[in-house]
Amino acid sequence: xxxxxxxxxxxxxxxxxxxxxxxxxxxxxxxxxxxxxxxxxxxxxxxxxxxxxxxxxxxxxxxxxxxxxxxxxxxxxxxxxxxxxxxxxxxxxxxxxxxxxxxxxxxxxxxxxxxxxxxxxxxxxxxxxxxxxxxxxxxxxxxxxxxxxxxxxxxxxxxxxxxxxxxxxxxxxxxxxxxxxxxxxxxxxxxxxxxxxxxxxxxxxxxxxxxxxxxxxxxxxxxxxxxxxxxxxxxxxxxxxxxxxxxxxxx
Length: 251
Prior knowledge:
mainly alpha
């Protein structure tokens, strides 16, 4: 059983290379196209937060304790990333001027938390029923692909080289393996923390989208006066919402 859980979590980690799709079409990574991809990323990240993570956290909380307030860890996720970014900005300006924008670090940390939770969910599925574990893995992989493309786009936008963006995104995704192994050995203990961890992850993603991605889109609009960026934003929302709806039906 542990072997199946490990294989499934590794497959989830490999979805981090979905961003490589953009490398195949190198024309997508031009300065004019990147803002459109960032708009898509903002739509994807907001949709994941409000239609996947927060409902999941609420469902987990109801199963454990109906009185649990998931908005407290969501709020803490937003606030903690505000202070985290402020600290990184201070270090960034007083240190090496060639360091990457701090938001890239926030994306990797937030995605790491998210992937850890996915790993625990995979372990729980296999422990309940191997067939459930397989369908859960397929469901998670399906809606991780657009999310990972969004993350890769943000990392590129924040100054990372393409190869490094793929590599660091993959390292961040390996927390799914950590969560899966931890879930196998300590599922009961970890399950009690899942609602708060899931809500916290949602808060971090909301912060990234609203404090960094969307303001960048506004700045781009002021410079270029292009309404076209609204289209990929809406596409990101629709694609992610459909992926979540379909995969939750599979689960």
